[in-house]
Amino acid sequence: MTRSWILLALSLIYVTGIAAIASRSVIAYQPRMFVPVLPHLIGLFTIGVAFMMRRLPAGGWQRRIGIGMVLCLLLGYGAANCISRAATPPDGFQKTQQALLEPDGTGVSMKSRLTQELKSGEVIAATNGQLVGYILKQPTLSLVDRRFGALIWNEQRLRKEMARFGATHLLVFRDAGFDSVVQESRFLSALAQDHASPWLKLVASNRDICMYRVQ
Fold first, then answer.
1. Which residues touch 27 (CB under 8 Å, ≥6 apart)?
2. What are residue 185's phi and psi, to 5 degrees?
3. Mean pLDDT of 191-197
4. Are residues 73 and 119 both part of a single domain?
5. For residue 213, what pLDDT is reported?
6. 165 and 113 co-located in one domain
7. N vs C: which end of the chain shows fewer Cβ within 10 Å?
8. How confident is the model at residue 151, as a pLDDT?
9. What is the pLDDT of residues 81-122, one digit of tens each?
């Protein structure tokens, strides 16, 4: 019973924390994110195994079979995790890193240009923002597509969110293969084609990325 109350208390703390984050985030948190199903199942499975073992006679064949089944399940779970990691296709990290290393019209790589433009800890906005933020080690407002966020990235929304987070630079990846949000937003699609807006100035571009600065 004590274990069940601990599990319930941890779940309530988790749900409360996620709700607090979701209320201030531009990311759409789906219902499955509010209830950690896998930890629940693992916790309930552990409680169930302990309950069963206490009721089986020590040294009996039922207990040995139960222990064997538990070990098989744990072995299968570990093997499934190893297989899933080995079968994961390569993500866009290398592709994004290469795009940032591509030179602009002056022969300077986009990554070097950003290093010159940005201050340490300065927020940037970007499509493909999670990888950009990870590679550049900068806090990033990620303009996610409709699979992960409820926002429609039109000009008014983008300007409002950039002002809210203090972002002064915007990276737009031209190819939807990096991030499909450029296909969902007419405004971002125009920016990907070097069509600047009065409040955004195009400061650098290469074949994959356009970089804008807020006027």
1. 142, 144, 148, 149
2. -115, 120
3. 88
4. no
5. 92
6. yes
7. N
8. 78
9. 777 666 555 567 888 899 999 998 888 999 998 888 888 888
CA distance 72 to 66: 10
Residue 125 half-sphere exposure toward CB, CA atoms < 13 A: 23
Same domain, 195 and 104: yes
Tell whether 123 and 199 lie within a shared domain.
yes
As a whole number of angstroms, the distance between CA 17 and CA 48 comes to 28
Residue whose structure tokens are 């607090």: 20
Residue 91 makes CB contacts below 8 A (sequence gap 6+) with 131
- Among 87, 106, 129, which residue terminates a domain? 87
Angle at 154 between CA 148 and CA 159, to 5 degrees: 100
Determine the structural domain holding residue 105 and report its residue range: 93-214
For residues 35 and 78, give the distance between their C-alpha atoms in angstroms, rounded to a whole number: 23
Residues 22 and 125 in one domain: no
Domain boundary, last residue among 42, 60, 87 = 87
Q: What is the CA 10 to chain-centroid distance, rounded?
A: 23
Instruction: Tell me the average pLDDT of the chain.
Output: 81
